[in-house]
Amino acid sequence: MVINGLVIFQKWLKDNKQMEQNLLEYLYNCFTNLIEKHAFHIENELNDGQSFSIEYHSNIFIFKLEKYRREFYATVYKSDNNNNDEIALFNLLKYLNRNSSNVPESNYFKEEDDIEECFKKQLCHISTTLYENYSAIICFFENTNYNSEIKNINNFMISKYPELFKRL
Questions:
Q1: Which of 72, 75, 129, 152 suits a disulfide with 86, CB 3.0-4.6 Å?
Q2: Is 45 helix (H, G, I), strand (E, B) or coil?
Q3: In which region does residue 112 sit, left (phi positive, over 0), alpha (psi from -120 to 50) or beta (all else)?
Q4: pLDDT tens readout for residues 119-167
Q5: Where do the domains of the chain lie?
Q6: Full-prediction pTM beyond 0.90?
Q7: Element (H, E) at 93
Q8: Please, what sign has the CA dihedral across residues 52, 53, 56, 61?
Q9: Among the listed residues 3, 30, 54, the one whose alpha carbon sits nearest the alpha carbon of residue 124
Q10: Is the pLDDT of residue 13 over 70?
């Protein structure tokens, strides 16, 4: 019985490693344009098997992608900002498109049973959203009133989601 369990576990590890390799390749393909078209470079890649993090750096802003369990989280922050004011990508886009009816939303594809397919859909959604809104993101980070805009985003998020910012 123990040997059978060990064989199953070894197969699971092998399958998991293959899925991890497939996802890394898919991730690199999704964000190739950041490197090739927009002169980003990869820094600070971490992969410990349970979580994953990668940063794409440019002269203007940094795009950070982190995976925990079944979800990828995308954040951005200004390259020369010592405060490291990370902003969730979709929160920034909510703020930038606050007067529009077309506001990009995050999607974790929780209805997807196949975990690898779930990850691929998330990566595709994030990369498509990033590329479609790239000009607006650049304008935000090049804004001379950047620090004021950071405060405005914080106020916007507090007013939009007051239950998340209640103090005990």
A1: 75
A2: strand
A3: beta
A4: 999 999 999 999 999 999 999 999 888 889 999 999 998 888 888 777 6
A5: 18-161
A6: no
A7: helix 89-96
A8: positive
A9: 30
A10: no
